[in-house]
Amino acid sequence: MDVSEPTAEQLQTRTANCKTHGDFESRAITLPTLGNKPGKPAKVIWSKCPACARETAEREATAKRTEQEQARQQRIEDRLNRAGIPKRFRECSFENYVADSDAKRHALSTAREFAENFPEHARRGSTLVFAGNVGTGKVHLAMSIAQHIIGQGHSAFFATAREIVLMLRARWDDRTAPSELEVLRMLTKVSLLVIDEIGIQFNTDAERDQLFGVIDGRYRELMPTIVTANLSRKALQQTIGERSYSRLREEGNWVPFDWEDFRGQKRIGR
Fold first, then answer.
1. Per-residue pLDDT reduced to its tens digit, 75-100
2. 118 and 245, same domain (yes or no)
3. Residue 67 domain-assigned?
4. Are 143 and 158 in contact (CB under 8 A)?
5. Is the pTM of this model over 0.70?
6. Which residues pair with 257 in a beta bridge?
7. What residue stretches are annotated with the IstB-like ATP-binding domain (predicted)?
8. Do the domain assignments include residue 155?
9. Total structural domains in the chain?
């Protein structure tokens, strides 16, 4: 490209050539220089190929969008890690849950409604109890809800009932572990708590009292909770106690999963 000093008549535009895009109209850009002596001409540069400039801008915009998407994905991954969601369940979604019966479609629509209207359920402190046979997709739908609301900027935490008891007792064996009060506050304040396999391990009054502390704390703060259990209503009530059961029942929705175990089948959600 010719970069020789232009004459006065050439200071507006001139034809230049780009090796990639061919001829283009180049425009003069005058740059005032501080301290110029009278009569000394200002510095003039010529605009470069506009097609090259557009391509560069598009590449930079694409790179920026990619960087932003990677950062968004990392934030979601960090939230999933903090939420305690196991990697096995991170592919769970409403879309890949196989609802091939009226009962399964009811469970799916209930879960989807809970996720899509989470702010309203958060205002009311709603509870979902997914109860029924082993391997019927209870955790799949619970994880679908949790991941949906995490994507909307809410917090969630997933743990088995046994893990919650162990978290509350951790200070007994490790003085550096969070105190029972600190754990209880975390479990109470998280936007959504999912308690899996509730009722399996509660063989002592102490364990029932600890679980009641969590359920009651969320009940008083109007914080939504999802519970999964392989028990009937009566068995769950007897296992966790009347106080906990009463709080789950208020503003709660019991969703039965009473079909056969389909965990061994290939598709996710079955």
1. 655 655 566 787 888 888 999 999 99
2. yes
3. no
4. yes
5. no
6. 132
7. 70-242
8. yes
9. 2
